[in-house]
């Protein structure tokens, strides 16, 4: 019997909620890790069901072409990360960086974060979207500070302050959108339902929509990590547990960008409103070039990849800012590839820093000699993220560059420049990390390589061959985003 | 009736802007917290008045939450926290109070200039409410930027949230979900904050964020 | 005939401010003394002081220039004219058209300018300190006064005090936060301009804290009488300004009979009494500020004035 779409959608949200409660009461950390893996696997199954059967949109939740894929990607990466987390956390416990009590908290928070992200993705109500993003922020703040070192607390505090400011601005933007909608759609819940908003958007007051978008771009842009508002991102990535860095980079940034794109669609639907593209292109390019330059002077390995995330978010924002079927297609593709690759890299980095007992780049050398599998995994990941063929990121970056050249050759110059600077930095650092004589200490790690190589294989496969179904899906959504 | 409705709303939300500026002017933690309590009380009145003139009873709930939670519970608990941490000395401001106040006035001017033309089609009540709300939001931001002390940053953040609630209340007929969720998230935020403050206290005996900066692993 | 009556009423106003001014200062001193459980000087003491000073010989410094000698008269005249322009017991007097808020601010500015110059003229260090401090205060207080004036005139659509008073009595005012802000701004500016606590202490001769007194330290005899008299009138001016703008009740309108004028005078005297009580209580209950804190305190008035003007743009006629 095929379950209905409503059941599947409910399951995507209820499973993390139940798991949270369970994890909050179970004190054994092994059981906690197992439940975590099982819960994320179940959520993944439920979200896959959503692909087949789609529930009718309600005023609060809906499933459409755009969010369904992101939900699947989200639950998939959540699942693989939970597998990685199980092996990572065991090591943290044995070195005494975390206590069982904190692990219980950690696992419960992990599920809350999943719940928040799934709600944000499935929400049809712009208010609910905002609530979910706020919940996700608060959860990650707690997780980033979990090690309780001064550096971790400072990172969490900075993240909290900047994140709250961003979120506050986003709420103001949301209120303005409601105000813009009210004259045409009347008062009440209907004026906050995205599916209804987009069908009426043409008659909204353009001035209000413009102002709203500026607030939303700044607000959610903070969560995406776009350049002037990115300060929290490197700290949060470097100081939190590595699974959280993977989830932050791979998922939460995407979710925030997704919400921003929803509003972009709204703005595009109104002919008189300002074209959101220019703003997004500007912020994207600035983030890209700034982050690429910052990559050179990094001494902390997780910080370095955090800056790489800013860079890629810049590229994606740029692509969506360019708009049009091809660039949006490339943007979606890049979003997916980056999510998979960056989380794979953090899986590798997590184990590397455990094996070497440090996150300092200068103290990590010759990984391919001391830990061949891990070392080569990291090398492959870096090659993929740098945008080398045959990996998927090469394809998406190629598409973005070629579509930019075709339409705005002048914009392509800084874009290519930024990409090249980024590649240079990554290759430079990778050589030191991976090759040459191995540095001490060389503790062997109980690593689970499956998530790492599963992600890399997917990225490789996407670079070589993209199934037709996926291509046609990307096309549909690209036309939707416009 | 309409004139009076507008006048009272104008008076209340205008006072909120004024109190936001007064928050910027304070340089002692205790008086900062007291003034913040006033801020919340005026917010409660402003929201209650909106509830009255819009005929939207659910806004009374928001007003009550603002009054009880932000007007009483949070200031009292922050008072205790400040006392326990022993940090009731002067707040170090990054910029002097004079320039900050001037900048604050400029922000008020900016938000009035931005909001009035944009909301031209709405009624006068919504217009003034939104313009003042944006001012309060921006002043809260300014406070967070100019203060180094963690407690005053929190106060800045909460005054910013007050501005948001004012905006939400002024947007006629905005569904209840949002208001309750705001109140709820403030609760969560306070828990987070509380945990943070105590952890910070445990580790290095200060809540001055500038001191924290020293501990960063890597200077850019 | 009517013209003569108008002249008479206007002349009455000019005489009234001159006669009542020392009484107001005496009243404030008396109330302050009583609040401190002292007997205090008689209400008429300011008159006696003036009388005594007028009879005394003028002692001039060797290097005092003509400026030093004419300054007291200029100061007194400017302030007297300004005070006579502010409607006290009646609106719509003969010179009402010139009772312009900005003109009044300008007259006060002129008086201050000459006083500061005179302080510098002799070249003693006290005079210099006094003048520089006075200018520091004025550089903030005067813009604050102007901002308040702008707010009021934007609100009433005119800068004429008499018209503003009539507007305030009308139904168009409503509840306005701008008015509250302007009131506080004017209050602070008035305290600063009249050298009252917390800005300055009119009764002190402590060298570190003097502002106004330091500036006029070199004056004696009838010159000092002029300056003291100007100070009395200035206090009265601010009191009647506040009364005229924020409590214009009981004022006679143009062309009302003598009875209405009498009632207006009675109302005016009651308002002055109230102002004296409030000022005395206020001064007794707070301490003087350090000089370095002054710009912040008076700056508040400027901020409030600015804010008042700004908030005015958000009106119900949107």
Automatic annotation (TrEMBL), chain A:
Coiled coil as UniProt keyword: no
GO terms under cellular component: plasma membrane
Pfam families in the record: Proton_antipo_M
Keyword annotations: Cell membrane, Membrane, Oxidoreductase, Transmembrane, Transmembrane helix
EC number: 1.-.-.-
InterPro entries per the UniProt record, alphabetical: ComplexI-like_HydComp, NADH_UbQ_OxRdtase, ND/Mrp_TM
Subcellular location: Cell membrane; Membrane
Entry superkingdom: Bacteria
Topological category with respect to the lipid bilayer: Multi-pass membrane protein
Transmembrane portions of the chain: 6-26, 33-54, 66-90, 102-122, 128-147, 159-181, 201-221, 242-261, 273-295, 315-333, 373-399, 411-432, 452-474
GO biological process: ATP synthesis coupled electron transport
Single annotated GO MF: NADH dehydrogenase (ubiquinone) activity
Enzyme class: oxidoreductase
Residue ranges of domain NADH:quinone oxidoreductase/Mrp antiporter transmembrane in the record: 123-418
PANTHER family reported in the protein's UniProt record: HYDROGENASE-4 COMPONENT F (PTHR42682)
Protein name: Hydrogenase-4 component F homolog
Organism the protein comes from: Candidatus Defluviicoccus seviourii
Phylogenetic classification of the source organism: Bacteria, Pseudomonadati, Pseudomonadota, Alphaproteobacteria, Rhodospirillales
UniProtKB/TrEMBL annotation, chain B:
Cellular component, GO, one term: plasma membrane
Membrane among keywords: yes
TM spans (from-to): 6-25, 32-53, 59-82, 94-118, 130-147, 154-171, 177-198
UniProt subcellular location: Cell membrane
InterPro entries, alphabetized: HyfE-like
Keyword field: Cell membrane, Membrane, Transmembrane, Transmembrane helix
Domain of life the protein comes from: Bacteria
Topology in membrane: Multi-pass membrane protein
Protein name (database record): Hydrogenase-4 component E
From TrEMBL, chain C:
Compartments in which it is found: Membrane
InterPro entries, A to Z: ComplexI_Subunit1, NADH_UbQ_OxRdtase_su1/FPO
GO CC annotation: plasma membrane
Membrane topology designation: Multi-pass membrane protein
Alphabetic keyword roster: Membrane, Transmembrane, Transmembrane helix
Transmembrane segments: 12-28, 73-95, 101-123, 144-167, 173-192, 235-254, 260-282, 294-314
Keyword Protease in record: no
Protein name per its UniProtKB record: Hydrogenase protein
Organism encoding this protein: Candidatus Defluviicoccus seviourii
């Amino acid at each position: 019997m095929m379950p209905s779409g409503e059941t599947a959608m409910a399951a995507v949200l209820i499973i993390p909620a139940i798991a949270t409660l369970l994890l909050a009461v179970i004190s054994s950390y092994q059981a906690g890790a197992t439940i975590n893996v099982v819960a994320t696997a179940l959520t993944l199954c439920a979200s896959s069901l959503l692909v087949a059967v789609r529930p009718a949109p309600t005023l609060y939740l809906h499933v459409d072409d755009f969010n369904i894929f992101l939900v699947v990607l989200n639950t998939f990466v959540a699942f693989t990360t939970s597998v990685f987390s199980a092996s990572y956390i065991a090591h943290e416990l044995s070195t005494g960086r975390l206590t069982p009590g904190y692990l219980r908290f950690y696992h419960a928070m992990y599920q809350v974060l999943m719940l928040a992200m799934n709600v944000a993705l499935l929400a049809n109500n712009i208010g609910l979207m905002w609530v979910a993003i706020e919940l996700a922020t608060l959860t990650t703040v707690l997780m980033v500070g979990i090690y309780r070192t001064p550096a971790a607390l400072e990172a969490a505090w900075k993240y909290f302050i900047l994140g709250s400011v961003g979120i506050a601005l986003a709420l103001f933007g949301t209120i303005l959108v409601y105000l813009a909608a009210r004259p045409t759609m009347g008062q009440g819940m209907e004026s906050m339902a995205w599916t209804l908003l987009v069908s009426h958007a043409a008659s909204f007051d353009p001035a209000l929509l413009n102002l709203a978008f500026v607030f939303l771009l700044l607000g959610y842009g903070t969560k995406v990590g776009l350049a002037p508002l990115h300060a929290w991102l490197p700290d949060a990535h470097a100081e939190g547990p590595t699974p959280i860095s993977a989830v932050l980079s791979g998922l939460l940034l995407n979710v925030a960008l997704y919400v921003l794109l929803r509003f972009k669609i709204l703005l595009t639907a109104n002919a008189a409103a300002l074209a959101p593209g220019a703003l997004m292109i500007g912020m994207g390019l600035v983030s890209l070039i700034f982050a690429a330059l910052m990559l050179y002077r990094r001494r902390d390995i997780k910080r370095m990849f955090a800056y790489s995330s800013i860079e890629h978010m810049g590229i994606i924002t740029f692509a969506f800012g360019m708009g049009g079927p091809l660039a949006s297609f490339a943007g979606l593709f890049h979003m997916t590839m980056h999510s998979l690759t960056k989380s794979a890299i953090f899986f590798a980095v997590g184990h590397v820093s455990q094996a070497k007992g440090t996150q300092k780049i200068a103290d990590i050398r010759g990984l391919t000699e001391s830990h061949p599998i891990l070392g080569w995994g990291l090398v492959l990941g870096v090659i993929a993220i740098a945008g080398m063929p045959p990996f998927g990121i090469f394809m998406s970056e190629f598409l973005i560059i070629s579509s930019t050249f075709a339409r705005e050759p002048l914009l392509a110059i800084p874009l290519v420049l930024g990409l090249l600077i980024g590649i240079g930095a990554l290759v430079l650092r990778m050589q030191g990390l991976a090759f040459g004589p191995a540095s001490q200490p060389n503790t062997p790690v109980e690593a689970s390589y499956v998530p790492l190589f599963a992600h890399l294989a997917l990225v490789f496969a996407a670079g070589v061959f993209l199934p037709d179904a996926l291509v046609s899906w990307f096309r549909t959504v690209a036309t939707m985003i416009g | 009736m309409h004139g009076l409705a507008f006048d009272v709303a104008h008076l209340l939300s205008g006072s909120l802007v004024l109190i936001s500026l007064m928050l910027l002017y304070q340089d002692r933690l205790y008086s900062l917290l007291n003034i913040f309590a006033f801020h919340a009380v005026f917010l409660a009145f402003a929201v209650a008045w909106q509830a009255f003139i819009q005929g939207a009873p659910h806004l009374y709930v928001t007003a009550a939450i603002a009054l009880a939670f932000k007007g009483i519970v949070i200031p009292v608990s922050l008072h205790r926290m400040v006392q326990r941490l022993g940090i009731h000395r002067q707040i170090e401001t990054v910029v002097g109070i004079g320039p900050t106040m001037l900048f604050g006035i400029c922000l008020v001017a900016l938000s009035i200039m931005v909001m009035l033309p944009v909301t031209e089609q709405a009624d006068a009540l919504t217009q003034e409410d939104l313009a003042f709300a944006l001012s309060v939001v921006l002043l809260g931001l300014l406070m967070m930027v100019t203060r180094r002390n963690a407690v005053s940053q929190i106060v800045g953040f909460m005054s910013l949230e007050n501005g948001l609630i004012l905006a939400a209340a002024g947007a006629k007929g905005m569904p209840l979900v949002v208001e309750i969720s705001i109140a709820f998230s403030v609760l969560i935020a306070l828990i987070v904050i509380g945990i943070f403050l105590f952890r910070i206290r445990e580790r290095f005996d200060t809540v001055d964020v500038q001191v924290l900066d020293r501990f960063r692993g890597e200077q850019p | 005939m009517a013209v003569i009556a108008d002249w008479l009423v206007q002349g009455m106003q000019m005489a009234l401010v001159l006669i009542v001014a020392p009484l107001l200062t005496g009243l404030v001193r008396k109330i302050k003394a009583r609040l401190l459980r002292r007997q205090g000087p008689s209400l008429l003491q300011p008159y006696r002081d003036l009388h005594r000073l007028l009879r005394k010989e003028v002692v001039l410094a060797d290097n005092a220039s003509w400026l030093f000698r004419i300054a007291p008269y200029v100061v007194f005249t400017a302030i007297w004219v300004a005070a006579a322009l502010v409607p006290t017991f009646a609106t719509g007097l003969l010179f009402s058209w010139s009772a312009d808020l900005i003109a009044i601010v300008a007259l006060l500015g002129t008086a201050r300018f000459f006083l500061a110059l005179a302080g510098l003229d002799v070249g003693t260090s006290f005079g210099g300190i006094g003048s520089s401090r006075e200018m520091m205060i004025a550089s903030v207080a005067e813009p604050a006064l102007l901002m308040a004036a702008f707010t009021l005139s934007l609100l009433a659509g005119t800068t004429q005090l008499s018209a503003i008073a009539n507007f305030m009595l009308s139904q168009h005012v409503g509840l306005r936060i701008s008015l509250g802000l302007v009131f506080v701004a004017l209050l602070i500016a008035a305290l600063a301009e009249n050298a009252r606590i917390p800005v300055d202490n009119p009764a002190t001769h402590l060298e570190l804290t003097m502002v106004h007194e330091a500036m006029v330290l070199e004056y004696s005899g009838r010159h000092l009488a002029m300056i003291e008299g100007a100070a009395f009138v200035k206090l009265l001016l601010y009191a009647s300004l506040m009364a005229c703008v924020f409590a214009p009740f009981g004022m006679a309108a143009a062309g009302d009979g003598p009875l209405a004028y009498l009632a207006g005078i009675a109302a005016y005297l009651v308002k002055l009494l109230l102002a004296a009580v409030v000022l005395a209580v206020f001064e007794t209950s707070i301490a003087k500020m350090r000089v370095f804190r002054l710009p912040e305190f008076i700056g508040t008035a400027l901020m409030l004035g600015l804010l008042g003007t700004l908030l005015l743009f958000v009106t119900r006629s949107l």
